[in-house]
């Protein structure tokens, strides 16, 4: 059974069809990286996976939840899916610890002491145990993004989605965030990672999807997509970014 099953997914904004029929299956524990030019629909695809966008057509089943069923419990679905964006959106008036504890406590998944223990454990895991009481403003961009990842993990998701999580960071901070994602991959987290970091995609992914103009142009192992791309569009794109 696929952890993520997408069949014939289309998405339009008005008359602009930005996803033109995507078929994607992601197995449990699989790491899929999505690459492609700006405007090709990568973010929209990711947002359809937790229904941050209405789905125009096709089928999307995530963790057994049919997102195209109007009766689907979205709150429940989203508790199974962690998402990390380019911009971290931490609450500035709360400590790092409180930011991470918020969702588990509000959604009553955990008591405050449990949420606190879990948050401290997660901060340890992302290398920020010493920053529990800091405010987001006191952190570097890389540290803030690691807190954002810890915050997503606090809900114990089965699936993590990353949308260019390192694009807004200064170059010297990219590595520390990629390391956290790499660790998650090694622990067997199912992940869909939209990234501009081609070296990282090549190293961490089980499968690479190249998107252009709302379509999957090519997909395969990192060795095949990066090492021997079959489609001219993939070759053009890689020639520009590598
Ligand atoms: P990518 O992440 O690959 O850069 P996006 O998914 O962000 O691509 O965008 C794909 C296309 O969808 C673009 O043409 C973009 O302008 C359009 N688009 C994305 N979000 C919206 C929106 N909320 N309203 C209208 N058009 C949108
Ligand atoms: Mg995008």
Automatic annotation (TrEMBL):
Pfam family, one: ABC_tran
ABC transporter domain: residues covered: 4-238
Alphabetical keyword list: ATP-binding, Nucleotide-binding, Transport
One GO molecular-function entry: ATP binding
Listed CDD domains: ABC_HisP_GlnQ (cd03262)
PANTHER family reported in the protein's UniProt record: AMINO ACID IMPORT ATP-BINDING PROTEIN, ARGININE TRANSPORT ATP-BINDING PROTEIN ARTM
Name used for this protein in its record: Peptide ABC transporter ATP-binding protein
Organism this protein belongs to: Arthrobacter mangrovi
């Amino acid at each position: 059974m696929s952890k993520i099953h997408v069949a014939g997914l289309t998405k339009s904004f008005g008359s602009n069809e930005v996803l033109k029929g995507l078929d994607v299956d992601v197995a449990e524990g699989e790491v899929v990286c999505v690459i492609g030019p700006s405007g090709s629909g990568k973010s929209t695809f990711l947002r359809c996976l937790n229904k941050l966008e209405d789905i125009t057509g096709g089928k999307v089943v995530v963790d057994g939840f049919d997102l195209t069923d109007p009766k689907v419990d979205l709150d429940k679905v989203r508790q199974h899916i962690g998402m990390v964006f380019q911009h971290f959106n931490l609450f500035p008036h709360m400590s790092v610890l409180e930011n991470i504890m918020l969702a588990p406590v509000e959604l009553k998944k955990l008591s405050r002491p449990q949420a606190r223990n879990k948050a401290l454990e997660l901060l340890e895991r992302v290398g920020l145990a010493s920053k529990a009481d800091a405010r987001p403003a006191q952190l570097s961009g890389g540290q803030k993004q690691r807190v954002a990842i810890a915050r997503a993990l606090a809900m114990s998701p089965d699936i993590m989605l990353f949308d260019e999580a390192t694009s807004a960071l200064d170059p010297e901070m990219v590595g520390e965030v990629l390391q956290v994602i790499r660790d998650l991959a090694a622990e067997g987290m199912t992940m869909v990672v939209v990234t501009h970091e081609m070296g990282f995609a090549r190293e961490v992914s089980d499968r690479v999807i190249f998107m252009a103009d709302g379509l999957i142009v090519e997909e395969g192992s990192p060795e095949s997509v990066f090492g021997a791309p079959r489609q001219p569009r993939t070759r053009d794109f890689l020639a520009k970014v590598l």
